[in-house]
Design brief:
CATH architecture of the largest domain: Beta Complex
Radius of gyration: 21 Å
InterPro entries: Hedgehog/Intein_dom (IPR028992), Hint_dom_sf (IPR036844)
Distance between the termini: 41 Å
Pfam family, one: Hint_2
Helix content: under 10%
Shape: globular
CATH topology of the largest domain: Endonuclease - Pi-scei, Chain A, domain 1
Protein name: Hint domain-containing protein
């Protein structure tokens, strides 16, 4: 069960849940209450109609309504028109109360008089675990094996040649809407030879927040350190490392070891599942409740295997890595 503290805004206006799905709606700002925080729990990280009565918010069953975008509405000669940047929104109902959750931050309401809401009954990934796509070959003590075949008790071999037992493996399958508003769903494609010749030795797909281990000239030149971690998304260069929006369905898999390690995935160094310490909780992932129930010694979380590059540093490294693929 995934668990995350999220910020929501209650909607107290006159429209019922079904009305919110009937084409574009304009909701005046005085129909919304004050921002509040609560705990959302979901079994697979993607909130949808399939989760009705199963997912909970502050311990109460969720009735999923839909997801889409909201755009600030401004007054122009007595008419409310959408003007400004649209932001993603997830809308659900709990105990008769409708809530709006903005996964990427609230809209800019400066000068706005309303929100123009455009949502559909489409699921939304509210948590973004660190995952490899099915088919990724992980180095083990028996050679490379597809990640979907690796189970608890198997042994993986890290980038430095050290062996680690797998404590836990997880998997899930996602259908990906072909809609630009849902870019966070799409995997990052790391092309063959993107990091250097033979690394990776085949095209590799990762979730956007999955971090790669970088060392060598690029890392030293930009960060001043011998090595660093950088999320796949932060390295995008639209050539050798890019979002793959052609994918319509993907199976994601992750592996947990007793500590944070650098796995070898298709010949490329990439992290194992990381459990944060209590004061270092990532925005979209908290598996600790489930994992700690199985492995109490992980209650204090983990330390990163090495430092993470800043976003601006990773972006420069990504541009330096841009090259033709063999």
């Amino acid at each position: 069960m995934y668990s995350q503290d999220i910020t929501v805004v209650p909607y107290n206006g006159s429209l019922l849940a079904a009305n919110l799905l009937s084409s574009q709606q304009t909701l005046v700002l005085n129909g919304f209450g004050s921002e509040q925080t609560g705990t959302l729990q979901d079994n697979d990280g993607t909130l949808s109609d399939f989760d009705d009565g199963l997912s909970t918010f502050n311990g109460q069953p969720v009735n999923y309504i839909g997801s889409g975008t909201v755009t600030p509405g401004v007054d122009v000669l007595g008419l409310t028109v959408p003007l400004g940047a649209s932001v993603p929104v997830v809308v659900f109902e709990v105990g008769g109360q409708i809530y709006f959750h903005y996964p990427e931050g609230e809209p800019n309401l400066l000068g706005a008089v309303a929100l123009v809401v455009d949502i559909e009954p489409v699921g939304y990934e509210v948590f973004t675990p660190i995952c490899f796509a099915a088919g990724t070959r992980i180095l083990t003590d028996a050679g490379e094996r597809p990640i979907e075949d690796i189970r608890a008790g198997d042994v993986v071999v890290d980038w430095f040649g050290q062996a680690h037992g797998v404590l836990w493996s997880g998997a899930r399958k996602l259908r990906l809407p072909q809609n630009m508003d849902f870019d966070k769903w799409f995997p990052v494609r790391i092309r063959k030879n993107a990091l250097k010749p033979g690394v990776p030795h085949r095209d590799t797909w990762l979730s956007q927040q999955h971090r790669l281990y970088l060392s060598g000239l690029e890392a030293r030149l930009i960060t001043g350190e011998e090595d660093c971690l950088a999320s796949a998304k932060s390295l995008l260069n639209d050539a050798t490392i890019s979002l793959d929006r052609t994918v319509t369905e993907i199976s994601y898999h992750h592996l947990l070891c007793a500590r944070h390690v650098v796995l070898v995935a298709n010949g490329m160094p990439a992290e194992s599942l990381f459990l944060p310490q209590d004061d270092d909780v990532p925005e979209n992932l908290d598996l600790k409740q489930e994992i700690v129930g199985l492995f109490p010694f992980l209650a204090d979380g983990m330390e990163l295997c090495t430092a993470e590059a800043r976003g601006s540093e990773a972006a420069v490294i990504g541009s330096l890595l841009q090259r033709n693929c063999a």
